[in-house]
Amino acid sequence: MSSPRKHAKAIEYQGRKLHEPALPLHLALAWIIIRVFPINLDYQYLSDVYSLGFTHQILQILAREVLEVGSQPATFVSLREETDKLLHAELPQVIKRNEKKRARGLELDFEYEKAEKGESWLGELAERFMDVSEGCTFIDSLEKELRERLDFSEDDDAKNPPPMDRHSPLGVFSRNLIKIHRKLSFDETAHLARQIALWCGVDHCGPFRPVTMWSLDRRSGMEDSLEKRMKSMQDYRAASSSGDYSGALASLRSFYDYQSPHAGRGQHQHALLNIATFHYASNGLDSARSAIDEAIRVARTAGDKECLQHCMSLSRRLQVETNSVAFTSTETIKIHQTPIPLSRLPEAATPMDELWSIKAALDLGEPVHVAFRRVYAALGLENQTSPPESTGTEDADRSYAKQWPTAQKLDFAGWHAAQSSLWGMMGSRALLELHEELAEGDLDGGTDGRLSVVFARAQRATESGDYDDALAQLIDMSTLQSMSMSAYHRWARVLWALLERRAQFNNDPDTLSYIAALSPSSPLSQGGPGGPARTSAHPSPISIEGTLDHNSDVSSPVALTQSHILSSLRHASSLLSAPSPALPHQILPSILSSLTLASSLSLWKIYRFAIVLLAETMLLMEGVPMAGKVVDEVDGIWAQLMRDGDAEGVMRGAGVLGRAWIELSLKSRVDEEHDKAVEYLLLSQQHAQRLEHRAACLETSSLLAMLAALRSNGHFPKSKFQSHDNAQVQEELVQRYWEVKEGQSGGQSRGIKSVADIGEIVKWVGVRIAEGWQ
């Protein structure tokens, strides 16, 4: 009677723990076990891939390192040389055996063909760890590969059992390695991948970031309680809202550093998705791309459709923002009255994706009236994701599209805010205000849509010269208490832009310098089409292409269409407002290109402002009577310009009409033309005073004083502004001119004091948000 098998000796050798410094070597030994014991797709051991002598020699190497009977542990180089020597000696026999099988008409499994290539086992291992993400994937796959080679059955009569008994020295070694593998956290897995890459002597991609590692032999990860995980998520949300990016990332990793008793890693795809979202929000687009690509692979492997849908949404946004531009440097800028092709802006799969695509499409050069279809496409997707209630008698063919279940429901506050913005671009004030009220009234939606409405209203109040009203809207407590740190940065940008515009119109360089000193050194920026304006928590990449030659003739690409138009108009406006205006032929290209693009894109508000700048440029042309054409151009848009609420556009438009009528009246001596000039100049002066535009006030005062002098000298006797006290009117206008000019130094201290008070408010709000309004 045979006694039962006992393995006390083997267990005595194998009972030691696997410590961190030895893990790279032990994972390399596990890889050698996997290669020397190949299995087919049916998980059957292929015992005839290698000869028994070769397998015996490999097992001797494994036993020496596992039992630590060598003089010193093997290094990667020594282990590779030793195994490669055996592989080269075995290769002719492997090829000979395979040829015999082919001669008999047998179909060879993949492992047979792979063996006859004679590739280095350790060389293949090193290649796996050149990329950290691939290295982590390899580490995750080790458990399954080792378990498939362990024999857990007690049946001694099995026909083709797995090659390793679980009580054997190699079996105990593999089980210990599996146990350690199950306890690895995310940080530990990434750290181990980098350690193996260093042990193999290969360069791994991605920055090396030291992480706080627990012992890899720590007790079961189930000691992590639910309370700890909830606290980690609360810390993550608090750190994100307060702008503590490093604390937010640490809390997020702590939340997902949770060990499950089973072998599956069901949390991986969700952790990677959240990390990618975090990097995307903090402008780390490269890090976000790396994380989301890995999340997509893991979600597909796990069959997690909902997570995969969220991953694909973020991946689509990253692809558009990082790879797309409106027009390349070699492409002619031309607007097509059709939607952006799917090759540049992929089709949306969820309502929020469709809503997001509106801004991306506008940035890529889609006309506003064409982009409107995306608003209702988002609403259509929202309705399709909720199938009609079953009546029990419906046909087999459903009338609605089959959709994945998704949590990406349409935010109706954002939906109305998007429509409000589109109507504002097209110049419809009534519809703009209607959708703003609807966005504010949606109590179930998020805060982003309502904050966008508040910021838009403040910007319109600033454009109309109601600076105090705009400030009151921005510093209202109902607005401040609902803001996160990202919304705070947007709020501060609107506030500093208001103060800067006011100081620029006042021609107050000291206040502008003070604003520049108080405003953040890293302002919000938009990375690409569709991307939000955000601060960067990641360092800027260092260019290795050399410095850019600004004198080269190579034109730069147009990344964002509307930003390109506004930049061209700002350039033209600065040339017109310079102390010595540029020549018309230097200004016209920027204005004419902006006019063409704005007209093609249905940006009518921008188009009308560009017409005013064009009229100002036409008056600068010497030797050509352009006053009549200027009047015709501006009169054609005057009614819409007055309804836009753009005080600067009205001020400049009235000013250019006043100068044009002065030129016409001096030639014709017609009193009605003189009266029109005075009326438009008075209107321009009224808006200049409202905007606190010092240069325009000086110009209109001087022109009105000149016209009063003409009337006092007997010109235009039938003018309705003709009176016996023209000389007194002239003196009052001249006195006002000098008051405005001398007031340029008297108002600086008041301007700086006002900015200082606002700066204290901005700092106080930032501190309160960082503290969580506690």
Coarse shape:
elongated
Distance between the termini: 78 Å
Strand content: under 5%
CA gyration radius, whole angstroms: 37 Å
Describe the main β-sheet briefly. Answer: 2 strands, parallel
Estimate percent helicity. Answer: 55-70%
Backbone structural class: mainly alpha
Task: Describe what you observe in this structure.
This protein is mainly alpha-helical and 774 residues long. It has four domains: 22-216, no CATH class; 222-376, Alpha Horseshoe (Serine Threonine Protein Phosphatase 5, Tetratricopeptide repeat); 411-523 and 746-773, no CATH class; 575-743, Serine Threonine Protein Phosphatase 5, Tetratricopeptide repeat. Helix content is 64%, strand content 1%. The protein contains 33 helices and four strands. It has helices spanning 8-14, 23-36, 52-66, 76-103, 110-115, 121-128, 132-147, 169-182, 186-200, 226-242, 245-256, 268-281, 285-302, 305-323, 351-363, 368-384, 412-426, 429-441, 447-463, 467-474, 477-480, 485-505, 509-518, 561-577, 584-600, 604-619, 627-635, 638-644, 647-668, 671-691, 694-712, 726-746, 748-770, and strands spanning 150-151, 164-165, 525-526, 533-534. The strands form two sheets. The protein has a two-stranded parallel sheet. It has a two-stranded antiparallel ribbon with strand order 3-4. Helix 12 runs antiparallel to helix 13 (285-302). The longest helix is centred in the first third of the chain and has 28 residues, at 76-103. The chain is elongated and about 125 Å long. It starts with 7 loop residues before the first helix and ends with a helix. The model is unreliable at 1-19, 206-224, 260-265, 386-407, 538-555 and 745-749 (pLDDT under 50). Belongs to the APC5 family. One of its GO terms (cellular component) is anaphase-promoting complex. Residues 236-319 form the Anaphase-promoting complex subunit domain.
